[in-house]
Amino acid sequence: MTTHTQEQLNDIWSAILAGKYGNDPLAIAPRRIAAEPGTEIMSIPNATGTDVFVYERKSGEQWREVTYSWPEWPTVQTALESPRFKWRTIEGIAKETKLDAVTVVGSLSANASVVIKSTIPDQEGRDLFTTKDHYREKSSLWERLESAITNKVQK
Prior knowledge:
Blueprint: H1 6-17, E1 31-33, E2 39-45, E3 52-58, E4 64-66, H2 73-80, H3 90-97, H4 101-110, E5 115-117, E6 129-131, H5 132-138, H6 141-150
Antiparallel strand pairs: 1-2, 2-3, 3-4, 5-6
C-alpha cells in the first residue's frame, strides 16, 4: 500500500538530489539508495523513524513501493549482537557501523522476524533493539521467563 502520492515522491526525490536532507548519518531523513544504472531507489522513514518505505522506478517511470533486501543487514546484525551490549539504539548502531539511521531502520524492519524491541526505552526515551538470539544469550532465565509471562521484553 503506497502512502505517498507520485507528486510527493517526485518532490522528495528532487529534494534528495538537491541535498536538502544533508549527509548526517544519524539523521532520520529520506535517502537515495545505490541502484543499477537506469533505476532510482529511495527510502523514506515514517514520522517516528521506526519504519522505512522504499520506492523504486526506472528513469522516467512512476514510483512504486517495493520490498527491499537490505545488504547492510550483516553489519547491522553484528552491531546488534556486540558482546559489549544487551540492547542497542538506532543511533548507536549507526555510529558504530557508519551507516545512516534510515539504512539501520530499514535493515531492522526488513529483518523483524529476528529483531526484538524493548518495551522500555533507554534513559533518553530512545527505542532499544537486539536480536532474539542475543537476548537469549544475554538475559538470565528469570528475565526470559518474566518476559514470556508479561509478554513484555525488558531491558
